[in-house]
Amino acid sequence: MRDKLGLIGRAEEVETLARQVEDHGGIYIVPAFSGLFAPYWRADARGAIVGLTAYTGKAHFARAALEATAYQTRDVLEAMAADAGIRFAGLKVDGGMAVNETLMQFQADILGIPVLRPRQGHQEVTALGIAFAAGLTVGFWKDCDDLRSLRQDETIFRPQMDLVGRQALYKGWKKAVQRALNWVDEPPFQQ
Questions:
Q1: What b/e readout covers 128-161, taking b as 16+ CB neighbours within 10 angstroms?
Q2: Which domain holds residue 18?
Q3: 24, CA 20 to 30 Å: which among 34, 57, 65, 109?
Q4: Residue 191 pLDDT level (bands cut at 50, 70, 90)
Q5: Does any domain span residue 78?
Q6: Cα separations (Å) of 78 from 46, 72, 86, 100, 101?
């Protein structure tokens, strides 16, 4: 949206643009730019934008792009839950995209579980996790309970979408994914 299409100047602008509309306007973006990875593992897939109408505007593109991230997360979590035989009670997030309120709320809605984000200023926790692991290894902390006591306040995004709406949107995503498959007839490179 920023580098190739020029719809936004900075990554942070996608949320402002996405908030200009109530929904994605019926479009889905499947970002399979070099294949579709977990849980599909399809090298023959390519990016697709489906559902365009005369009503579609760039704000719908922004919204659909954010929502694609949430759908992909649901795909992976469902595969993990099926493999492990568990049900997730919540999802903890961090990183640059975690500051996007619209995305975090939609993620909670499409998953049907709470999404927990660290307090402002603590979104990039990968380095913190490495430090915690090192501290446990050298005995700085006794065990994981010591680490739990360090937990900071979180913003909790609770699902607001009903099950019927959630399932209808996800069904549309799955349909869009099918449109992105079998696009490449031959492997993109030879061994």
A1: eeeebeeeeeeeebeeeeebeeeeeebeebebeb
A2: 13-180
A3: 34
A4: very low
A5: yes
A6: 22, 10, 10, 23, 23
Model confidence pLDDT, tens digit, residues 140-173: 888 887 777 766 668 999 999 999 999 999 999 9
- What is the greatest pairwise CA distance in the chain? 62
List the CATH number of the domain containing 50. 3.30.420.40
Query: For 89-127, how does the pLDDT look when each residue is reduced to its tens digit (9 = 90+)?
Result: 999 998 888 889 999 999 999 999 999 998 765 556 667
Q: Quick check: is 127 in a domain?
A: yes
Closest to 183 (Cα-Cα) out of 65, 52, 40: 40
> Which tokens belong to 171?
């069904």
How many structural domains comprise the chain? Answer: 1
